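Bug #77: duplicate submission created two jobs. Keeping one. Sequence:
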Amino acid sequence: MGMMEGKAVLVTGAGRGVGRGIALAMAKAGAAVVVNDLGVALTGEGEESASPAEQVVEEIRALGGQAVANHDSVAEWDGAQAMVQAAIDSFGRIDAVVNNAGNLRDVIFHKMEPEDFRAVIDVHLMGSFHTSRAAAPFFKDQGSGAFVHMTSSTGLVGNFGQANYAAAKLGIVGMSKCIAIDMQRFGVRSNAVAPWAWTRMVSSIPTDTPEQQKRVEGLKKLDADKIGPFCAALCSDGGKDVTGQVFGVRNNEIYLFSQSRPIRTAHTAEGWTPETITERVFPQFANDFYPLHRSGDVFTWDPV
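Kept job's structure:
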């Protein structure tokens, strides 16, 4: 008996990489899995094949598990409804949703077009909303359920050429926390996970400089299958008291991230003017300002 025995899970973007690893980990833990994947290019455009989801389904069935494929888009409200309904129709229930589907449109900000921004928001942020909202009534009625949303160190720390991706991924953190607050009384949990893994998405990172080449070589050591066991643990009954948190998984390391809280305050009885702010507040706060770190500046040690 695995920790997810008797439960049904929807995993989006599960045809490759991190999503595939999560779907397989859920199945190994005993869950029945809806394997969602569009089978499109990295940008989210142009259908490559509908086969990745089917291949993962076959892998799960070969393990003795239950799985069905779904090829709807998380960017569409009706598509998300169909994914959740597939779990109900196939397995009679839905117990967890893992929002993993993603795309990239990396462009330096002053060259980023509205479509570059919107395309990433639609899949990551709106997609996570669509699938979560589709499952929420079922979770409420049964008095249980778990959401796992994929965030990123790009949103939590920052990276070059990814303003669209960062906006989506940090937005997901805020959404996850508010879902946790709204649905706590119904026994529903919601957490965010930042995965480090060598996948199709990070394989698009440029290698034009020695520094970039060194970074990519480090990223190649990150195993996409390491994320799945943590997601299964979060969605299991063993994770019933864990909600509203932000985690990271990087090979054999698991992180708990801080959340935004005030760290300094400045007060005056007379009220502030632009002049007194620049004279007193900025210098007072300067020692605690965050530098313009990128993810790689913070996570500098080799993965273990």
